[in-house]
């Protein structure tokens, strides 16, 4: 192995996208402040969840640094291995004694006292693998044979996720694929036909869903139903926050335990209640800046493989943001999708940071700067 050329360190530091780094740090800083209220540290004095979140973020920074050491193109050479690894990570949760069912989905494995949602890791490995597959077929993307082959490569992942059942993550993967196809120049007529087909097949998909998923869809069209308690409490919290909010640790819905899953799925409602409309707008603006920056980096990649990678990561983050905020304010059905860098979850934070590291890798090597 060649030695690291440390004379390039200064150039590497200069070519890191500090705009993206700053945006991520601002989102996380705001998020950890909100999490302190959502976990009631002011009442219980229990900092366990906050410490876990901070440690995950710190470990994520280490992962980012490690990822910057290697050219992403070198990682792409192992796309077959990454593809197989990704499938195995989704299959392992089906093994009795290893898989752990939580929130109605068999999506977790227990490692000692720690729960790991394997699909969080697979998001990253799938993007690295699938982006390479799309890149190798990009010249014929609009041909039925090629498009069918690409869809077949993705179907096992979608099928396994829907079978867990984890509809939210399944849709995340669909968005990853769509963003890659879109930047690859997929014909708009094909996109239109896919959308029409999806609408036509929606009633069929509804009856194939798990019972708790069907309840969520029904509740979306019947917001005042008693079973829609989560969203009702979320909207009450946001509405009571007004323009400027009630202040940190002063949200009654949050502090008095009316708001469910407030540390993860509905953490945006805590922002609305305690920081008001202004706080929500600040967070939304930060997320818009994040997505805009990711799209800019995708355009500046030195090759299409890098572009497809960043497009997939952008699709992943974009859907999670829109879905989480949308369900919090009652505009979308509840799917259990968390808010990136804000919701509590060690595996989610860690994999989100890994994806940011990959994006920084793509940006840094637009000028072919390598440590090796």
Automatic annotation (TrEMBL):
<dbReference type="GO" id="GO:0071555">
    <property type="term" value="P:cell wall organization"/>
</dbReference>
<keyword id="KW-0573">Peptidoglycan synthesis</keyword>
<dbReference type="GO" id="GO:0032153">
    <property type="term" value="C:cell division site"/>
</dbReference>
<dbReference type="Pfam" id="PF01098">
    <property type="entry name" value="FTSW_RODA_SPOVE"/>
</dbReference>
<dbReference type="GO" id="GO:0009252">
    <property type="term" value="P:peptidoglycan biosynthetic process"/>
</dbReference>
<keyword id="KW-0472">Membrane</keyword>
<feature type="transmembrane region" description="Helical">
    <location>
        <begin position="303"/>
        <end position="322"/>
    </location>
</feature>
<feature type="transmembrane region" description="Helical">
    <location>
        <begin position="150"/>
        <end position="183"/>
    </location>
</feature>
<dbReference type="GO" id="GO:0016757">
    <property type="term" value="F:glycosyltransferase activity"/>
</dbReference>
<keyword id="KW-0961">Cell wall biogenesis/degradation</keyword>
<keyword id="KW-1003">Cell membrane</keyword>
<keyword id="KW-0808">Transferase</keyword>
<keyword id="KW-0328">Glycosyltransferase</keyword>
<protein>
    <submittedName>
        <fullName>Rod shape-determining protein RodA</fullName>
    </submittedName>
</protein>
<dbReference type="GO" id="GO:0015648">
    <property type="term" value="F:lipid-linked peptidoglycan transporter activity"/>
</dbReference>
<keyword id="KW-0133">Cell shape</keyword>
<feature type="transmembrane region" description="Helical">
    <location>
        <begin position="20"/>
        <end position="38"/>
    </location>
</feature>
<dbReference type="GO" id="GO:0051301">
    <property type="term" value="P:cell division"/>
</dbReference>
<dbReference type="InterPro" id="IPR018365">
    <property type="entry name" value="Cell_cycle_FtsW-rel_CS"/>
</dbReference>
<feature type="transmembrane region" description="Helical">
    <location>
        <begin position="82"/>
        <end position="99"/>
    </location>
</feature>
<feature type="transmembrane region" description="Helical">
    <location>
        <begin position="50"/>
        <end position="70"/>
    </location>
</feature>
<dbReference type="InterPro" id="IPR011923">
    <property type="entry name" value="RodA/MrdB"/>
</dbReference>
<keyword id="KW-0812">Transmembrane</keyword>
<feature type="transmembrane region" description="Helical">
    <location>
        <begin position="190"/>
        <end position="210"/>
    </location>
</feature>
<dbReference type="GO" id="GO:0008360">
    <property type="term" value="P:regulation of cell shape"/>
</dbReference>
<feature type="transmembrane region" description="Helical">
    <location>
        <begin position="266"/>
        <end position="291"/>
    </location>
</feature>
<dbReference type="InterPro" id="IPR001182">
    <property type="entry name" value="FtsW/RodA"/>
</dbReference>
<dbReference type="GO" id="GO:0005886">
    <property type="term" value="C:plasma membrane"/>
</dbReference>
<feature type="transmembrane region" description="Helical">
    <location>
        <begin position="342"/>
        <end position="363"/>
    </location>
</feature>
<keyword id="KW-1133">Transmembrane helix</keyword>
């Amino acid at each position: 192995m060649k030695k690291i050329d440390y004379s390039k360190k200064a150039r590497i530091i200069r070519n890191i996208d500090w705009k993206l780094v700053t945006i991520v740090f601002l989102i996380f800083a705001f998020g950890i402040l909100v999490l302190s209220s959502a976990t009631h540290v002011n009442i219980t004095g229990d900092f366990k969840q906050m410490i876990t979140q901070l440690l995950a973020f710190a470990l994520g920074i280490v992962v980012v640094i490690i990822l910057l050491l290697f050219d992403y193109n070198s990682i792409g050479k192992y796309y077959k291995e990454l593809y197989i690894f990704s499938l195995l990570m989704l299959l392992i949760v089906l093994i009795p004694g290893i898989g752990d069912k939580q929130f109605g989905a068999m999506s977790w494995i227990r490692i000692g006292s720690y729960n790991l949602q394997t699909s969080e890791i697979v998001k990253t490995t799938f993007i690295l693998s699938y982006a390479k597959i799309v890149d190798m077929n990009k010249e014929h993307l609009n041909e039925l044979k090629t498009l069918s082959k690409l869809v077949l490569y993705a179907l096992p992942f979608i099928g396994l996720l829907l079978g867990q059942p984890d509809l939210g993550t399944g849709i995340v993967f669909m968005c990853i694929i769509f963003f890659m196809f879109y930047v690859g120049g997929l014909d708009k007529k094909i996109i239109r036909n896919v959308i029409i087909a999806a609408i036509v097949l929606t009633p069929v998909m509804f009856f194939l869903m798990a019972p708790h998923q069907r309840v969520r869809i029904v509740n979306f069209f019947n917001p005042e139903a008693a079973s829609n308690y989560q969203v009702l409490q979320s909207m009450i919290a946001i509405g009571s926050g007004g323009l400027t909010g009630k202040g940190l640790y002063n949200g009654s819905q949050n502090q008095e335990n009316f708001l469910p899953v407030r540390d993860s799925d509905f953490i945006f409602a805590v922002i609305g209640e305690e920081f008001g409309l202004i706080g929500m707008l600040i967070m939304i603006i930060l997320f818009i800046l994040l997505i805009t920056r990711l799209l800019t980096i995708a355009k500046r990649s030195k090759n299409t493989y890098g572009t497809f990678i960043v497009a997939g990561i952008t699709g992943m983050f974009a859907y999670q943001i829109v879905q989480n905020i949308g369900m919090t304010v009652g505009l979308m059905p509840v799917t259990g999708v968390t808010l990136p860098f804000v919701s509590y979850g060690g595996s989610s934070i860690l994999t989100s940071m890994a994806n940011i590291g990959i994006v920084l890798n793509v940006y840094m090597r637009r000028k072919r700067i390598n440590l090796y």
